[in-house]
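Researcher: Let's try something more involved. This one mixes different molecule types, so please make sure each is placed in the same coordinate frame as the others.
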Amino acid sequence: MTRRGRLPRRLSVTASREPTLRRCEGLGAIAHLMSSAEYLLCDSDLRATGLSQYDFTNQSWPVKSPGLRRILNFTARRDVTRLLHTGRIIAAGALLVPVSGHRLRFVANTFLTLSTLALEPGNRNSSDAADAASFVAQSAAAVARAAGGRPRIADACLWYMATQSALSYAAAGWAKMYGSSWRNGDALFRIMRTESYGDRRAWQLMVGHPRLTRSLGRAVLAMECCFPFVLAGPGRRLAPGFVSSAAIFHFVNARFMGLNRFLPAFVALHPAVLYVAGPRTRAGADGTHEHRDDSMPALFAVMAAGGFAAMAVDARRRRRLVLKSREDEQSMLMSSGNELRYRRSGDGRRDAPLLVLESGLSGTAEQWAWASRELARSYPVVTYTRAGYGSSTLAGECPYSLSTAVTDLTELAIREAGPRPVVLVGYSLGGYLVWQAATHMAGRVLALVVVDCSHPSELAHTGGIARLFAERDAALGRAAHWLRAGFGSLMPAPAWTRSMPADVRDLASIQAREPGTWSTARREWRAARDHAARAPFGPPSVPALVLMSEKTAEDRPALLAAYHTMATDSPRGQFHVIGSCNHDTVLSSATPARQIAQLINSFITDIVDDPGMKGE
Amino acid sequence: MSNSPHWTAIAGSDRDRAALAVAAGFAGLLCASVASNLPTRQFDRLRRHRVPFRLWMPGWRLFAPDPDGCDYSLLFRTRSYGGEVSAWDGIRKPAERSWQHMVVSPGRREAKSLSVVIQNLLADGRRLHSSTLPGTRSYRMIESYVRRHVTERDAGTGNAEGFQFVVVRHTGYDDTEQPLYLLVSAYAAV
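Model: All components are placed in one shared frame. Result:
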C-alpha cells in the first residue's frame, strides 16, 4: 500500500504544489502572450499616437538615474521593443508546453518578469490591472523556479499569488462600499452604458431588467468583499465556489466589458488560492506526502502588526508636534469655553489698525504664513487657529454652530486690538466668517478683506450643489475615520503645503493629517450650510476688498459676479483677481500671497489716509 | 526523465535563511500592496511616489468607489488656408464587442492610453488656468494625437492650416443625458 493510499480521500482531490505552480504560470503566460500579441499588432499605431512614453530623456519624466534611463531608452527603441515582445510570445509558449522542464520554466518566467518591468514605463498609459496580475503570477513563479526544489520557497510564492488574488477582489470590493452607485445597485448600468467598458446589447438587456441588474451588482460586491475569507478558517471550504464565481465574473467581463486579458491574468492566481485554502498535507505528484509551509502569511501578520505599531508611534509624534505648535504662540480662553491659540506679530504705527487673519475650512494659522510676514512689516497682525484645529481646543458643544466661531473671532479681535481699529481678513470659509463678524463689531472694524470667500450661494444645500456637498461631507468623514484608526502615515501631505515657507511646511503638513482637522472641518462644513440658510449676508457698512484667484474666476462665473456685487455694494469696495493661482495656492504660494499683502496694504493706506474716512 | 522538480526529496532539509528571506520579501510586498489599496484614495501616499516600476504595488481598486459611467471623446475641426472652417469630426470610437475580442483586442491599448491622457488633461485643467494648460505634457500629447488624425484625414489635399479640438464627456449608449463639452482648445497649426 502506497503512502498516498493512506491519505484521506478529500486530500487527494486538491492539486499539489507542482501542478498548482504549472497552472499559475501557464495561465499567466496566456495573459502575457495575448498582451504581447496586441502590442505587436498595434505597435505602429500606438507609437505614432504619441500617447505612450518612448523617450526617457525628458525632464518631466521621473527617472532620475542616468543608468536606468539609458536602459529604458534602449528597451523603448522600436526594434528592441518588437524583439522583446516576440521573445515574450516564445517564452509564454514554452510555459504552455506540458513537457517543458524546470530550468526552461525558470528562464521563461524570468524573461517574462524582466521584460514586463522593462516595457512597463513606456506603456504606462496603456497598461492595466491584467498586466499587474500576470506580473504577480510570473514573478512569483520565477522565484519558485529559481529556488529549485525547495518547497518552502515555492509555498511562499504560492501564498503570495493567493493573497494578492484575495487582495485584488477585497480592495475593489471594499473601495466600492464607499460608492453610492454600488450600494444602490446603479453601478452596472453606469458601466454598461459606456462605449469604453460597456456593451450595447448588455446595456439594453439591463435596462429591461433593472431589479436583476441591481441584484447582480450587489452579488459582485458581496463576492469581492468576502473573497479573503477563503484563505482562513471555515471559509476555506468555500474556496472552490468563490474561485468559480470569480472565474465566471472575469469571463463575463472579458466578453461584455472588453477586458479579455483580465480572464487569464486573474484566473492565473486562482490555482494558488485553491492550494493555500486546501489541506496543509496532501498527496504529492510522485505519490508522497506534501506538507505546505505557511510562514509567509504568518510573516505578513507580524509585519502588518509592526507596521501598524510604527504608524501608531508616528501618529503620537505628529500629535505632540501639533500640540507643541510654534514657540511664539499664546492662548486665550474664550467665553464659549474654547481655547484659541494665536500669534501676534508686527507692530506698525501707534494708530495702525490690527489685522486679524482668519483661515479657511480645514486650515490653520499657518495658511497665512507668506502674507502675514509681508503685512507684519506695516501692521500688527494676529493669526489664529479656530477651535478644533491644530492646538486650539473646542469645548464640548452640541450641536455645533458657526455662530460660536464668529463670536470667538469677535472676542479675540476686540481683546487684542485694544484701542486700535480692526481689519478683518478671511480666506475661503474664513471670508464668510469675517463678513459675519463685521456686523457684530460695529464701530470697531475699519475694513474687511476676503480672499476666495465662501458665498451663501455655494453653501446653500440645493440642486447640483447638494450632491457636491454630500460628497465633500463624506470625504471629510472618511478621512477623519481612517486617521483616527491610525493610518495618518499613509496620507500624503497636501500639495499646497509644498510651496509654503520652509519653517512652517512640516507643521502644516502634520496638521493636515490630524484626525481633528478633518472632523472639525466636517463639523464646520455642516454648520456652514445651516448658517448660510438663515444668516443674512448683506453688504457691510465698512469698505471691503474682495479678492479672487484667477482659476476660481475662470471656473465659476456666478461666483465672480457675486464677488463683484460684494465689492460694489460696500463703501469704497474694491475687487481684484489674483493671477497664476487657484483656490488652494492663492495663499500657500509666495507670489500670489505677496500680491495679496500688497493689495491689502495699499487698500488700508487709502482708507487711513482718506480725509473723509478720518472724519468718520 | 521526469520534468517535475524534487519538491519532497529535500523537504525538511530546506529550512534555511533563503526560504525565510523569500517569505519575508513577499510578506513585505504584500504589506505595501495592502497599504496602497486602502478603500479610500485619500491615503495613497505610497502610490504618490513616482517610481518607474509600479507593478510591485498593483492598484486593485477598479471601478471604485463609483464607476465613471461616462466616455471621453475628442472632436476636432480644421481651418483651411482660405479661412474655411470644417464641421466637427469625431476621432475613432471603440469597436463594438465581439467574441473575437476575447482572444485579441489591439484597439484597447490605444483607447486606454487616450482615456488616461484625457483624464490627466482634465486633472491639469482643474488645477491650472486655461492660459497655462497648453504648456502641460497631457495637453501636448492630446494635441499631437489630434494633429495626427487631422493629417491622416487631410492626406492628399493639404488644405488644413490649423485645427481645434474639444474634449467631450458623454454617456455612450445612453442618450438620455446631454453630452458635456469640457475643454475647447485654441487653434493649433497642423
